[in-house]
Amino acid sequence: MNLIAAVDKNWAIGLNNKLLTSIPEDMKFFRETTTGKVVVMGRKTLESFPGGRPLKNRVNIVLTRDRSYQVKGAIVVYSLEELMRELEKYPSQDVYVVGGESVYRLLLDYCDVAHITKIDYAYEADAWFPNLDEREEWVITADSEEQTCFDLEYCFLKYEKKPVADIPQP
């Protein structure tokens, strides 16, 4: 499974259920990477999308504890176990976790690849992505040239999880 997120220099991802910023190239990367794939998200992330509607041309899976929650055009699951059963239907490499904070934290250990747009700026935030730079099992395997959008500098990073045998044991 994959994770995909845009983070600031402190690994912040959002404020008041909104993205911290909108960078056209990042949006394009997200769209091109996830189109035709499976996206997994929490209810609040879905509600933050335009019109609160599922993303087009993708299988949208929403994880929520609210058993009465339903949304047209998405598969709604109510537990990690139910989510994992649903995900068995799809190739793991076609599954992208797209947020928010609690879903990223819940599914991080099930993922092998993280596509991170790292923005060289510190925003006010109330939601964060787990800091992969502090986790020895995650390593950067691809790094774009520095990009610029107006006065913001950012880069596209690909993190991959090391095989367990490669992680030093205490």
Describe the structure.
The protein is α/β, with parallel strands linked by helices and 170 residues long. It has one domain (2-166): Dihydrofolate Reductase, subunit A, CATH 3.40.430. It is built from four helices and twelve strands. The strands form two sheets. Strands 1, 4, 5, 6, 7, 8, 10, 11 and 12 form a nine-stranded mixed β-sheet that branches. Strands 3-2-9 form a three-stranded antiparallel β-sheet, with no helix packed on it. A hairpin with a 2-residue loop joins strand 11 (147-149) and strand 12 (152-161). The chain is globular and about 40 Å long. 29% of the residues are buried. The model has no long low-confidence stretch (mean pLDDT 95).
Structural class: alpha/beta
CATH architecture: 3-Layer(aba) Sandwich
Low-confidence stretches: none
Let me know the CATH homologous superfamily: Dihydrofolate Reductase, subunit A
Return the CATH class. Alpha Beta
What is the element string, with H for helices and E for strands?
EEEHEHEEHEHEEEEE
Tell me, briefly, the overall form.
globular
Oligomeric state: single chain
CATH topology name, in short, is: Dihydrofolate Reductase, subunit A
Short description:
The protein is 19% helix and 34% strand. The protein has 170 residues and is an alpha/beta fold. The chain starts with a strand and ends in a 9-residue tail after the last strand.
List the helices and strands and how they pair.
Elements: E1 2-7, E2 12-15, E3 18-19, H1 24-34, E4 38-42, H2 43-48, E5 59-63, E6 75-77, H3 80-87, E7 95-99, H4 101-107, E8 113-119, E9 127-128, E10 138-143, E11 147-149, E12 152-161
Parallel strand pairs: 1-7, 1-8, 4-5, 4-7, 5-6
Antiparallel strand pairs: 2-3, 2-9, 8-12, 10-12, 11-12
